[in-house]
Amino acid sequence: MLSDNMQAALNKQIRHEAESSQIYLAMACWAEVQGLEGVSQFMYDASDEERQHMLKLVKYVNERGGHAIISELNAPEIEFGSFKKMFEILLKHEIFVSQSINELVHISLEERDYATHNFLQWYVAEQIEEEAQARTILDKINLIGDDKGGLYLFDNDVKQLVVTSSVMPGA
Ligand code: OFO
């Protein structure tokens, strides 16, 4: 059984994951309108993944005798100005989510809720991967600068990232 404190914190995370999904969906739309197919596909996939992260939490809360709360969400930004800016926002957002997961881990230890502590380890690992991926993409963008041909190659590169991660088991 979840403590009230643990349940409230997990429900807050459900909202963060749902908001992440909306943020990446807005980024997918912006990239699609700009004509960058690879980046847009990457963002559509990221949005789907975030929804899965949310659902995993929803199921967990309900399974542990709690009640997962589906709440209202903050509207995401819809204009990003540049790809660099967009991926900077993405990295910043992932760092925020990592901090929020850390806070949950902290609460699980305080509450001596070792089942939740164990459940959260998947999120800890996932956040490391997502932050690293965002940093790699930003490094590439910084290498390209304003070069149009580079941007085309970058889009193709990101498309490959999508293909690789959907082929990788458990990714
Ligand atoms: Fe849910 O992993 Fe990113 O935010």
Notes on the protein architecture:
The chain is mainly α and 171 residues long. The chain has a single domain, classed as Ferritin, core subunit, four-helix bundle (Ferritin, Up-down Bundle), CATH 1.20.1260. Helices cover 80% and strands 0% of the residues. The chain contains five helices and no strands. It has helices at 4-33, 37-63, 83-110, 114-144, 148-167. Helix 3 runs antiparallel to helix 4 (114-144). The protein is elongated, with a radius of gyration of 17 Å. The site of hydroxy diiron-OXO moiety has 8 residues, from helix 1, helix 2, helix 3 and helix 4. Hydroxy diiron-OXO moiety is lined by residues 17, 20, 50, 53, 94, 97, 126, 130.
Topology, element by element:
Layout: H1 4-33, H2 37-63, H3 83-110, H4 114-144, H5 148-167
Helix pairs in contact: 1-2, 1-3, 2-5, 3-4, 4-5
The protein binds hydroxy diiron-OXO moiety.
